[in-house]
Amino acid sequence: MNLLQNISVTLMLLFSYLSSLNSTIFNNEVNQCTIPPELQKEIASYKTVVNRIIHSLLVGDLQNTTYRRLAEFIDKFGNRIAGSENLENAIDYMLNKSVELGLENVHSEEVYVPHWVRGNESAVLIQPRYQNLNMLGLGSSVGTPVDGITAEAVVVDSFEELENIAAHVYGKIVIFNERYISYGETVKYRQFAASKAAEQGAVATLVRSITPFSLNTPHTGWQDYSDNVTKIPTACITAEDSHMLRRMQDRGERIIIKLKMEAQTFSPKLSRNTIAEIKGGEKPEKVVVVSGHLDSWDVGEGAMDDGGGAFLSWNSLVILKYLGLRPKRTLRAILWTAEEEGLVGAQAYVKAHKNETQNFNFVMESDEGTFTPLGLKYTGIPDGKCVLEAILSLLKDINTTTVEEPADGGPDITFWLSEGIPGASLLNRAESYFWYHHSAADTMDVEDPEALNLATALWASVAYVVADITADMPRKPGQFL
Amino acid sequence: MNLLQNISVTLMLLFSYLSSLNSTIFNNEVNQCTIPPELQKEIASYKTVVNRIIHSLLVGDLQNTTYRRLAEFIDKFGNRIAGSENLENAIDYMLNKSVELGLENVHSEEVYVPHWVRGNESAVLIQPRYQNLNMLGLGSSVGTPVDGITAEAVVVDSFEELENIAAHVYGKIVIFNERYISYGETVKYRQFAASKAAEQGAVATLVRSITPFSLNTPHTGWQDYSDNVTKIPTACITAEDSHMLRRMQDRGERIIIKLKMEAQTFSPKLSRNTIAEIKGGEKPEKVVVVSGHLDSWDVGEGAMDDGGGAFLSWNSLVILKYLGLRPKRTLRAILWTAEEEGLVGAQAYVKAHKNETQNFNFVMESDEGTFTPLGLKYTGIPDGKCVLEAILSLLKDINTTTVEEPADGGPDITFWLSEGIPGASLLNRAESYFWYHHSAADTMDVEDPEALNLATALWASVAYVVADITADMPRKPGQFL
C-alpha cells in the first residue's frame, strides 16, 4: 500500500513537473499580475525543489513528522499557560529539540508575562433547582470570596438588554446569553461582560461560551477589565446552560446561583520566545519568519491552539534543514510566548527587534487551525499577492493555491503587518475551529497527520522560495528588486 | 410573518387535499400492495383530519407545544435515573399534567427497578505525566476501595488484542481503545469490557466512550458482569484520552492510573410506568400504544434520551384530545421506567398485560432521537407496511412518507414485536444521535421546536388513523378485518 502510494505520488509529481516545463503553471489570474518575466521564470524553476518537499512529506521519509513530533510534545506536556513551570519546561524541550535536529542560532529571548492561576472553581444553580453548571473562569478574572458569591441572577441577551434593565442589576449575577454570530463579532461579550455589568452594580458575570457548537462545553479566554470599574469575577458557562437559564427567567422563575472561584493574578513571570534558524546562505541579515505560539490555555492540551501552528512552522525549518535546503535569506522560526494573554511575547519581540524591521522580508504565522490547507491569507501590497500566487501555483498538486486577504489568522505578526511588512497566515478548512478553541476539546484528536503533511509541504515551500528568490517581497508597487 | 406563514400553510394543505380527492395519494409503490380498495379509500378519507393535525402543530395554536412542554419538564427535573427520587417526582408531574390536560384513565403501574448510584469518581493519569482523565463510571459497576486503585495500565484496541496479551494483564487496569464502527457493533466493549478483562486478572477497566464524535466527552451506559468472574470497577473515558494513552504505550512509556469510584448498587426500588389514554369510542378494549421512556442517565438532562420520545408520544395524545379526536380504538401513552437498566419497566408491563396481548393492535415507540422526521421504522408483515405507507402518504406535505424496516429505534416494544405484534419507531435524521447519547451533552439544545412539531404531526396522525380505521393492523397476510 505504501509502496503503491509512493509510486503513484512520484508519477503524479513527475507528470506535474513536465507540465510545468510547458509553462502551464501560470494561470490567467497570475498573468494579470505585473511580475517581471524573469521573476516568473525564476519562481517556476523551483518546481523541482517544491516537488521534492511535497514528496518527502506525503510519502517519503518525512511523512507524518509534523504530527508525530507534535504528538510527542503534546502528550508530554499537555496544556501550557503563561506563567506556568510547564510552559517553561516545554520551551526548554523545544530549544533542546531544535539543537538536536540541527537548527541554527537556537536561543530564547526573555519577556515578562502575566501570571494568572485558575484554582478551584464552580458555579451551582441553587434555584429553581439544584444543578452544577459546567464553567471555566475567564483569564485575568478576580476570584470570589472564599465562601463564594450567592446571588440572584438576571439573564440578558445583549449589552443593549443590559442597558434596558440597568435598574435591576445591582447586587446580581448577570448572565450573558448572547447569540453566536462569529468569533470576531461575538467575543466582545467574553472580553467586556464583567466591566459592562460592574458599571451597573453587578457582583459577577457568567458568559455563554463563544462557540458555534457545544457538547455542554465551556470555552475560556482572556477578558479585560476597564479602568475605574470594580473588578468582579467572570466565567463562561455552556451554551446549553445559558439557554436553560434564559428559559427559566422567561417563565418568571427566580434564579439563584452560587459562584466560587479561587482565581488569582500573581506578579508577572519571566518567560521566553523560542527562536531557531536556518542561516541565510547569501543575505543572512534578511529574514523570513515562520511562527506560531507555544503557550496555550490551561484546559485541554493546546494541540490545535496553537501546537499545530507552532509545529507547522518549527518543523518546516527542521525538514528544510534535513533536506539540505539553505536559502539565500535567513529562515527564522519564532515560537511566541503568552499569546493568549494579549500577544505579550510578540509585542516584546517586535520592540526588541525594532532596528531589524527593514530586514524582515516576509512574516508568517499559523494560529487558526492546521486542518486541510487551502493556501494562504495575505496582507501586503497587490504585487506581493502576485508573487505569492506564482509560488502557490507550484503547489497545485496538493490543492493549496488560493490566496485570500487579509492575513487574519496570524495575531502575533499583526504588529509587523501594520507597519507594512508583508505577511501571511495559513488558509485552511477551519470551519470547526471554534468548536474546540480554548476548551477541554483542544486535543491531538483535532489534528490530522495527513492535513499536517500537506500544510507543512505548503508552509515549508513558501518559506523556502520566498527566502531564496532574488527579489525581496515587494513593499512598494513595482519594487521587484 | 406568522400570519403569512399561516395562510401559506393553509393554502398548501387545501391544495394537497384537493389533490388527494383526485386519488393521487396512492403512488405506484403503494399500489403494489394488496390493500382492499375500500380500505384505501377509507385511509384517503383521513386527509382532512391529518391536515388539521398538521396545521394546528405547524402554524396553529398547538405550535411548539411538544418542545415547550418538554422544556418545562426538562428544566424542572434535569436527569432522572432509575432509583432516584427525582424520577419519581417526574412521574408524579406527568400524572398530574395528564389529568390537567384531560387525558383519561391516568395511572401508574409499579415495578421494582435497579438502584445504582454513581457517587464521586475520578481517574487520574499519574505516569508518564499527571493529567485528570474525564470519565464516567458505567451503570452497575462496583466501586473501588476508598483509597482508589492505583495500577499500571495496558491499552488494547480489541478483545482479540486482550487475548493476545492475556499473560500481561494480571493486576493491571485494562484500557479499551476500540475503534467506533457503529453503536450496535461497538457497544459490546462498554457492556463486556469488565468481564473480559477480569477473566485475565485485571483490576479495573476504562473503555473509550461509544461515540463517533467527541469534544472530550465521556458517555456512560449500562454494563453487564458475567457470572463467575470477579466484579471489577469499570468506567468510560473520552476518545481523546484513550487515543493519547495508546500513543504513550506505543512509545514504550509506562502508564500508571489512579481510579476512584464510589459507585454502589442498592436494593431495587419501587418505580412506575406512567399510563394515560384516550379511551376508544367503539372498540375501547383494542389498544394502539405510543411510548417512550421517562427515565434517563444521571448525566446531562435526558432531553433527547428519551425526553423527546416520551413527550412526542404523550403530547400526541394531549393534542388529539385538544382537537376533540377520539378514535374507535383506545390510544394509550406509556412512559416506561428504567429503560436504561435493561428495559425493566417494559418487561414488567408486558408480563402484567399478557392477557391483553391480542388487543394490542399497534405499538409505537420513539427512542432514537426526535430530529427532523422522515417517516417510520416498522416491524410486522408486509401487509401492515402497505397500510402504513398508505397512511404516511397523507403526510407527504411534511415529507414524512418513508417506511423502513425494522422498528429498531424502539427498544421497549421489542418484547411485543417479537411476539408478532406490529409496531413502529420514529425514522428521523438521527445522524448525530450518538454524539449526545448518555452524556452531559444530552440537553434541550439537541431538541428543535420545528422538528418536534413535524414529528408530533406524523406521530399523532399515524396513531389516530391506525386507531380509528375499520381494519386492525394485519398480523397475518390478507387479514384486513
From TrEMBL, chains A, B:
<keyword id="KW-0333">Golgi apparatus</keyword>
<dbReference type="InterPro" id="IPR039866">
    <property type="entry name" value="CPQ"/>
</dbReference>
<keyword id="KW-0325">Glycoprotein</keyword>
<keyword id="KW-0732">Signal</keyword>
<keyword id="KW-0458">Lysosome</keyword>
<keyword id="KW-0645">Protease</keyword>
<keyword id="KW-0865">Zymogen</keyword>
<dbReference type="GO" id="GO:0043171">
    <property type="term" value="P:peptide catabolic process"/>
</dbReference>
<keyword id="KW-0964">Secreted</keyword>
<dbReference type="GO" id="GO:0005615">
    <property type="term" value="C:extracellular space"/>
</dbReference>
<protein>
    <recommendedName>
        <fullName>Carboxypeptidase Q</fullName>
    </recommendedName>
</protein>
<dbReference type="GO" id="GO:0005764">
    <property type="term" value="C:lysosome"/>
</dbReference>
<dbReference type="GO" id="GO:0005783">
    <property type="term" value="C:endoplasmic reticulum"/>
</dbReference>
<feature type="signal peptide">
    <location>
        <begin position="1"/>
        <end position="23"/>
    </location>
</feature>
<feature type="domain" description="Peptidase M28">
    <location>
        <begin position="273"/>
        <end position="461"/>
    </location>
</feature>
<keyword id="KW-0482">Metalloprotease</keyword>
<keyword id="KW-0256">Endoplasmic reticulum</keyword>
<comment type="similarity">
    <text>Belongs to the peptidase M28 family.</text>
</comment>
<dbReference type="GO" id="GO:0046872">
    <property type="term" value="F:metal ion binding"/>
</dbReference>
<dbReference type="GO" id="GO:0070573">
    <property type="term" value="F:metallodipeptidase activity"/>
</dbReference>
<keyword id="KW-0378">Hydrolase</keyword>
<comment type="subunit">
    <text>Homodimer. The monomeric form is inactive while the homodimer is active.</text>
</comment>
<keyword id="KW-0479">Metal-binding</keyword>
<dbReference type="GO" id="GO:0006508">
    <property type="term" value="P:proteolysis"/>
</dbReference>
<dbReference type="InterPro" id="IPR007484">
    <property type="entry name" value="Peptidase_M28"/>
</dbReference>
<dbReference type="GO" id="GO:0005794">
    <property type="term" value="C:Golgi apparatus"/>
</dbReference>
<keyword id="KW-0862">Zinc</keyword>
<dbReference type="Pfam" id="PF04389">
    <property type="entry name" value="Peptidase_M28"/>
</dbReference>
<keyword id="KW-0121">Carboxypeptidase</keyword>
<dbReference type="GO" id="GO:0004180">
    <property type="term" value="F:carboxypeptidase activity"/>
</dbReference>
